[in-house]
Each structure stands twice: as structure tokens, then as C-alpha cells.
Amino acid sequence: MLLELKDVQKFFSVAGGHWKTRPSPVKAVNGVDLTLKAGENLGLVGESGCGKTTLGRIILKLITPDCGTIIFNGYDITSMGHHQFRPYRKSMQMVFQDPYSSLDPRWTVRRILEEALSLEGARYPTVAQRWERTRQLLVAVGLNESVADRFPHEFSGGERQRIAIARALMLSPQLLILDEVVSSLDVLIQGQILKLLTGLQTTFPVSYLFISHNLRVVAKISHRIAVMYQGRIVESAPTQELLGNPLHPYTKELLAAAIDYRVSSGERPITSKHTTHLVDHGSGHFVMEG
Amino acid sequence: MKKDRLPLSEFQLALRRFTRNRLAVWCVYALLILYAATLGAGFLAPYSFHNEDRNYSYAPPTPIQWSKNGRSVWPQALATQLTFNEYNARVYTIDPTIKYPIKFLVKGDEYRWLGIFPCRYHLFGVDYPGRIYLLGADARGRDLFSRLLYGAQVSLSIGPLGVLISFIIGLLVGGIAGYYGGTIDNVLMRLCEMVMMVPGFYLLLALRAAVPDDFNSLQVYFAIIIILSFIGWAGLARIIRGMCLSLREREYVLAARALGVSDIKIIAHHVLPHTLSYSIFAVMLSIPGYILGESGLSLIGLGIEDPYASWGNMLSDAMSIVRIQFAPWILWPAFFIFLTVVCFNVIGDALRDCFDPLLKGEEMRQ
Ligand SMILES: Nc1ncnc2c1ncn2[C@@H]1O[C@H](COP(=O)(O)OP(=O)(O)OP(=O)(O)O)[C@@H](O)[C@H]1O
Ligand SMILES: [Mg+2]
After folding, report:
1. What CATH number belongs to B148-365?
2. Inter-chain contact B1–A149, Cβ cutoff 8 Å?
3. Non-local CB neighbours of B117 within 8 Å, separated by 6+ positions
4. Nearest-CA residue of chain A relative to B355?
5. Residue ID of nearest Cα to ligand 1 atom 24
6. Which of A104, B202, B277, B350 could form a disulfide with B24 if both were Cys (CB 3.0 to 4.6 A apart)?
7. Could you state, in order of their start, the residue ranges of all structural domains in chain B?
8. First to last CA, chain A
């Protein structure tokens, strides 16, 4: 198992009011269990604000969870110190949601990409070696090597995402978290990026955790899909199974919105109480029961 | 686009953009000349700042003869004669019969070059009893040109030194407040607001009043710098704090953290450079405030005191309109203050425009 999350939880306290009238915290991630096998792409789908980004950042330890365990490659990384975590860090990377803020605007593409290599000084000691690796990645994500000396603001959103993907792949991670990589792009470019991502997996042995609010997009790239609702995973199943046989009402609603699937009347109301838990429906299909 | 493999550094690119702004480049030259002049003030000035001759009170610029009968000759300073008219006002008349040839590398008043090496040689001068006033004389018959040079040493150094101190304080306070947030941020920002709440000049006066009377001129000089930077740091701290607060949430900072780049490197490479591009012009634009602050203090007699020269205290001579009418050259310090302030402002603006592909990028997003 490449990645395993157990009951991960993160609440954000909200500013405003004093200690008595302070509003209750935002339950961004509210007890998430998730597994990801090596070589498998997992899609994480849910509406805006359901905690997808927060979950992605928790996995990378950019945010400390309130409780829960994160197991990466069999090692519990939750309580690891900064130093201990170092070797694992480069095995997981993230492509961030906003292509306009994820690249330092005052750095050239070349410097952005080579920042990662500076952490691997032993493997890439010379300028030539670093440039070789940079060039290789630029070509891999479908950019011309001549873009290396340009600044991020000279690129379109799609090109920026390619650069961000290249940066994330610089150190050959095993897990790549793609946070809404195509959400800000038009449909045509979305298709190109998705194709690129699938293609990259032939050269780079990397698993994707593909985060999106768009079920249709997630379905194109994922072997398995987990549906997130209000900080919880409400259903997870292999892609075909989930699309063909959605069990949780929220999934059905998502599906209806995405591919015009008709919701039959008389369904259960959508629930997300913490007392509920995932129930196995066979063949890897888990659903949250009320 | 250069085909060359080695990319232009960010600094080179910024420099290239900067040099496209002709006005700013001229301002840089002007400031360079002014600062170079302060370094060689003792040598460039024909007299020391306290060399006075009451017979030449408010003497006009010395006329210099360049040619005779259509032929150019070695420049000669013509003597001026002081008489009084029927209203007992001074009248200077040129006496063309007495001439003093201008000499170069003459021995004159002793000065210390860079404050260390004693030296008596001056770039130019005339023999005793002649006097040369390139820009005229002040009330006590001291050479305005010489005093402008000595005054520049004070007036031009106070700005950068003051800014340096407030910049260090501002960077520290702003960085700590912005990085840690919470209570520390609250306390530090309230402190800033307390400093900023009091109108600058009153604070200046109050602080000046707290400085002991028996300070010598050098101590007063440093006291003024410290007072000015005490007033100046709060604004910078607030700017930097605000920037750090938003910068640490940027996704490229997160990306660097995800790569495992150390905090120190992230701050040095991804956070501070961004505050620097903003604060470098904030600094440039705030230097005039220090220069004007010193001038203001000196003008009302609370800054650098006679006989020492600063542009501000030289201007205190020009507080009466009658004197300005009679000897308009005593306004030269005002001209130089104006020139310096404008130069710093233009350069500050140009830096803002050029140091930032960031600004362009952000404008495009909106
Ligand atoms: N640093 C934070 N402080 C306070 N609240 C936060 C913070 N980060 C996220 N939240 C809140 O947590 C919730 C989940 O946010 P998150 O960004 O994870 O959602 P998301 O699923 O990624 O949404 P989107 O699809 O819009 O990106 C939101 O309600 C958000 O307001
Ligand atoms: Mg998000």
C-alpha cells in the first residue's frame, strides 16, 4: 500500500467573536480513511469547500492534522519530525490548485525547476547535469526547452500547469497529488493536460491522487474514485463500479450533475454524521451508511 | 530572447528595465555626483565651512573674467568693493583693476579627508587677500559653495543612514509579526500604530527635546538619525508585516515547502525578495522624508548647529524675504534639497516599475 490514511481530521478555528461567542470551527477534514495502492490512480471528488485541498496538504504534511494517521510506504509519517520526514518528502509531491500563484513570479522557469535539484546536490552536482534533467522534464511535459529562461507571467494557465507538473516530477516522486490541475483551464486544454498526465505514467512510475470537483474529469484518469462530502469520504469504489452503480445519494447527485444521470425519487437524505461509517458492498465498493 | 544558455540574472533584467527610464538614469547620475562631491568636500571646497570674513557678508558670486579683448585668458577672479548706499544698505561694486588669478591645487584651510587624513590642498582658490565665492556668501561672509559641500555631508548621509536603521528594525519587527502572527503580531502592530499615530514633526520635536543639551555636534548628528529612524520604522514594519503575512500563504511557498526546502531558504529566496522589491522603492521614497526631517529640525535651530553646515540650517538664513531679495543665492540649499528629494522619488518610482515582473504578472490577472 503506497498511502493509507486513518481517521484523519483537521478543524480550523474561525476568527471573530470572543471566547464564548466564537463560532464553531470549520470541519475541513472530518475523519477520513483512504488507501492508495502503488500504480493506481485515485480520484478524489467533491464540491468546493469540502476539504479536498486541505486533505492533500495534510498528506504532504504542509498542514498538521488534529488527529489521525498517515502511513506512506508502510511508514507512519504523521508524527515524524521535520528532519526525519526529509527522505520521504521527495517521494510525494503536489501540483497546486492555482497555476498563477504556484510559480514564484520572479523566478525563471529554469530556476523554478532546478530548485528541486538543489536538494539533491549529490545526484546532480554539475550545472550540466541539472540542466539535462530540467530539459528532460520540460520535454516530457510537452514544452520547448527554450522556455527555460522565461518568467511565469509569460505563460498561459495550461503552460503554467505543465511547468508545475514538471517541477513536481523533478525528483521522481512515487505519489503526485494533483489538486484541481485542470479546473481553471478550458475544456480543450483540460483534455491535453489529462492526456499528458496519463502519458507521463509510462515514463515515470508515479501514482496520482487526482483531486477535482468535476466527476467527469476525475473519471478519465482514475482507477478508483473516492467521493468527499463535508470533510468525509462518503463513497469509494472502482471508477466503473462507481459510475455504474452509485449507492450514496450525494454520489448520485454528483453523477447527475456530471453526466445527466437521473436521480430516482424517494432516496435517503444526504447525511454526514460522524457516527456513520463506510460499509463494504463487495468488489471494493464502500459506502457510508446512515 | 537570448539563445545563450546562461540566463540573465533577475538583477540584470531589472537593470535593463531600469536603464530604459532615461529620467531615472539622469537622477542616478545626479545623485552619484552629489555623493561623490560629499566625499571630496574638503578638497572641492575652497574654504572650510567656518572660514568667515564679515567684510563679505552676503557678497554676490564673484565675477570671473574669462577673456580680454576677445582673447581668452587664464580665468581671473575680480575683486569686489563693499560700500554702503544712502539707506545704509550694502552695495558691492566690481573693481576691475584688482584681479586674482584662479589657481589650482592651492594650499588653504586644513581639513581632514574622509575625516581622517589631514590635508591642506584645495582644488582651486585665489591668493590672499582675494576671496572667491562661486555661489555667493552668507551673512558672515562664508563661502556658500564650500558650505553646501560640507552641508551635503550631513544632509545626504542622514537619509540613507536613517533608512538603514529603520529598515533593519522594520524588517525584523515586520518579519516577526508577519511570520508568527497571533499575539506577537498584535502587540507589535499596536506599538507601530502608537508611533504612527503621533504626527511626525511633533514626535520629532518631542524626541529632540529629550536629547541632552551638552551633546557635541557629532552626537547631535547621530541623535537626529536615531530620532528620524525611530519615527520611520513603523511604516516599513507594517508594510513588511503585511507582505509576509500574505506571502507565506502563496502556493509557491507551499511548493517549496513540499520539496523540502528549508525555512531559512524559503524566507531568503521566496519571501524576502518579494518584500524587497516593494520595500526597496518604499526605502527610496522614504529617504526624502529623512532629508526633509533633518532640514526642518536644522531650519528651526534644533538640528545641526552653526558653525557646522547642513542644508537645513543654511536655509534658516533664508527665512526672511528681504534677505532673499537682497541675496537670492542663499536659496541654493533649497535647490539642492529639492533636487535630492526629486531624484530619490524618481528613482524610487522607476525601481517600482522595473524590479517587478511580479507586478506585471499580477496586473495581467486582474
Ligand atoms: N487555513 C485555513 N483557515 C481556516 N479555514 C480554512 C483554512 N483552509 C481551509 N479552510 C476552510 O476549510 C474548508 C475546506 O477548504 P479546502 O480548501 O480544503 O476546500 P476544497 O475542497 O479544496 O475547495 P475548492 O474546491 O474550492 O478548492 C473551507 O470551508 C475553508 O474555508
Ligand atoms: Mg481546493
Report:
1. 1.10.3720.10
2. yes
3. none
4. A106
5. A48
6. B350
7. 56-139, 148-365
8. 29
